[in-house]
Design goal:
Two copies of one chain form a homodimer. Helix content of chain A is about 40%, strand content about 15%. Chain A contains 14 helices and 13 strands. In chain A, helix 7 links the parallel strand 3 and strand 4. The structure holds a DNA duplex.
Chain lengths: ~425, ~425
DNA sequence: CTCCCGAATGACAACGATGTCGGAGATGCG
DNA sequence: CGCATCTCCGACATCGTTGTCATTCGGGAG
């Protein structure tokens, strides 16, 4: 237990954080030399270098990020503002972003809005108080102008929700909902219901619009009574679902705009012994394949969105002036049984046998080209498949105005 | 569009971040006065104050956290080091910590280890590079001494895994596993298997020890062939499970030390049409109640752990010298059907009807007193029930050495 | 009218690191 | 032997903010 100290000696039990100058004293060199060593700069004799490194170890010195960032005017933290980290979608999203960020030596700081506008404002200030290398945000109520203001200081990428003038990575909510609805109609269903969150996000309204569009394309009338909403955070989904399915004119098919709605529906069906309608959900969820029948869903892979968002963010760090882009990540309909219930069968009571034998028949795939296997079986995510990302990035659209080329591969992989 | 600028004028398109001094110039006051305004200090005329606030708004000024932290020598960021944010357990954990931190005006920065020792080291440095108000860590391989070193600079709380000399919040792995195993044995099972991760965590070995202990208490021989492990991140769980259950001498009951193992087991059973053994899992997971039969599990609520950990962290910020404590959060066995399969029935093939009628009978509850309802139905977490936390905190044990009183309510709720 | 006092504000240094620049030796070459 | 050159290293200023202390100004008391 060696300890050498100079000058200050008032530190006793609560040993203060070692500073660079303490290391300098311990090693008998100037602060600048310590700085050179810890930053791997050249021009230090091997001997000196080792002496400094020893002092660093002895004192447990870790450079103060605040001071370093201040002086270097360098931002090495990526901010993420999302709805809630407890949402598996965002958990997976953040996980991938962190993975990519770490590979570049960046830190990740996140904040959640809880879907609350005021809190979003607070959290945004909290995040921007840090020097950011960029901000990835799933905007709730923040004005596009506010984000545009931030964009003059660091790259800003919007995820899942579009904001004009801001780079965005989204899925084709309208198209995917239309595709899913059409698939239900193709099974012979005439009464298809829609269940979504009671929030004013375009995500929801676009899905609703896609649903309507598919109904109209099939010559079916839009019936407002078949559209139900559920509150966030509430237990409302199950209640809404049973109310819907217990009606005399209950639908035979249901499109759920969120996986929460689908889960609530299944729960209601189980609790009340209701008849299982044909069901398609947005967003995969753990174990969806193990229910009976398995839940057919529109795949909306957070890993793809995260990878695309991060790459775009880093691309903007290099070319800040390129016009805002909108990247549409492909989705696809994954058949697992619940969405393939034919209308005829829905009237009978023979729904037991959809668990295993479904999911094999060919089914329309939405999005371009074929994409990778479903992500269900990866509760803990590994690295996203690069080929998926390439696909996603190649779908780059320039925003209405602006003529940027697709983002090239931003340099990924700094020193470890 | 008003804009008054002095001195510097070289800023054009990529408007740099506004500094405090820019605000001062714009408002025609000194930097110190701006500082006073943004920090709500007294001694500023209402008139002046408003002028400054207007300038702050105009310029979109947000104080630089680095500079502020540097000068104030104040830490307002809580670091969290966990295995993986994509693990729903840790996602929920982090969510709660963030909630509590925000209430105190603290930021949260997290990093994940991916169960990798080298990466853990890197991430630890990344986190400690920030000025931390405290660190919550689920240690992988980091030495207790290293954490003890950090502890001299800020509070450190270990979660889920114990490290000597460090405050810890854990569950009673041994006791919970013993309880679960005993419950299986009580159903008449003689061949009870154990499946856990192939990692050297005490979490796993303690559960294994608890399992052995229960076997011995029941006079059953411990059979190493009934203990199987699965790799992390792999798809190994399902493969291991089918190998185990397809054996001639397959067990009639299975205790899974992780929910991954339980999920893999169910998946294997479905895929291969195997017979369902009595099954108890550690850790709840979404939809466990909707499978058929529902999965009986040992509840291990991340919200309780998070709340206890955060409170302990804040308590230590006030009283850093108090000896390390070990808080044991109670667990309980939640019957849902799969764990109540009697041994007799396991030999017959009538396993269809366990979905709904299970989960009602009384069953041993592990932990003290009665605790709250299961958390299953809250995929997106609301605030944890304070009463639960009270229960958890009251179970405080001092570590072998050290005689601290139970943590009092650390001051929560700073200025908004 | 002068002096004193408090309220409002500003000047200045410092937090911990690093960029710039210059200086001390060592070496090479004519 | 003198001078240029190169290597290694340190002095100093500075990043954006705030703590400390000084200064100014207006007004009331004597």
């Amino acid at each position: 237990m060696t300890h050498d100290e100079r000058e200050t000696a008032e530190a006793a039990a609560p040993r203060p954080r070692a500073r660079l100058i303490d290391v300098a004293h311990a090693a008998g060199v100037s602060p600048k030399t310590v700085s050179r060593v810890i930053n791997d700069e050249s021009g230090v004799l091997p001997d000196t270098r080792e002496r400094v490194q020893a002092a660093v170890r002895d004192l447990g010195f870790v450079p103060d990020r605040s001071a370093r960032a201040l002086k270097r005017r360098e931002a090495d933290t990526v901010g993420i503002l999302i709805d809630a980290i407890s949402d598996p979608f965002f958990a997976a999203f953040v996980s991938v972003v962190e993975e990519l960020a770490v590979a570049e030596g960046l830190s990740v700081i996140f904040a959640s809005t809880g879907y609350d506008a005021a809190r979003e404002r607070t959290q945004l200030d909290r995040l921007t108080g840090h020097r950011l290398a960029g901000l990835i945000v799933a905007p709730v109520a923040v004005a596009a102008a506010t984000l545009a203001g931030l964009r003059t200081r660091f790259p800003v990428v919007s995820v899942d929700r579009v904001r004009s003038g801001i780079d965005a990575v989204v899925i084709d909510d309208f198209g995917a909902a239309a595709e899913a609805t059409a698939a239900l109609i193709a099974q012979g269903h005439h009464r298809v219901a829609f269940m979504g969150e009671d929030v004013p996000y375009p995500t929801v309204s676009d899905r609703l619009a896609g649903y309507r569009s598919a109904l109209e394309a099939a010559g079916l009338a839009f019936d407002p009574r078949l559209v139900v909403t559920h509150e966030r955070f509430g237990r409302g989904e199950a209640a809404e679902a049973s109310r819907l399915l217990e009606r005399d004119d209950a639908p035979t098919a249901l499109l759920c705009a969120t996986s929460l709605a689908a889960i609530g529906t299944v729960r209601a069906i189980r609790a009340k012994g209701l008849r299982m309608p044909a069901l398609i959900s947005f967003g995969d969820f753990t174990l969806a394949d193990l229910l009976e029948p398995g839940i057919t869903y529109v795949d909306h892979d957070p890993r793809l969105l995260a990878t695309a968002a991060f790459r775009l963010l880093r691309e903007r760090a290099v070319r800040p002036d390129a016009g805002p882009e909108r990247i549409v990540v492909p989705t696809r309909l994954v058949p697992r049984g619940s969405g393939e219930v034919p209308a005829a069968s829905a009237d009978a009571d023979e729904l037991e046998n959809f668990g295993r034998d479904a999911g094999t028949g060919p089914h329309p795939v939405h999005g371009s080209a074929s994409v990778a296997p479903p992500s269900t079986d990866l509760p803990v995510l590994a690295e996203p498949d690069p080929s998926l990302v390439a696909t996603a990035l190649s779908l780059t659209h320039p925003e209405p105005t602006g003529a940027a080329a697709g983002p090239a591969g931003a340099s990924i992989g700094a020193r470890p």
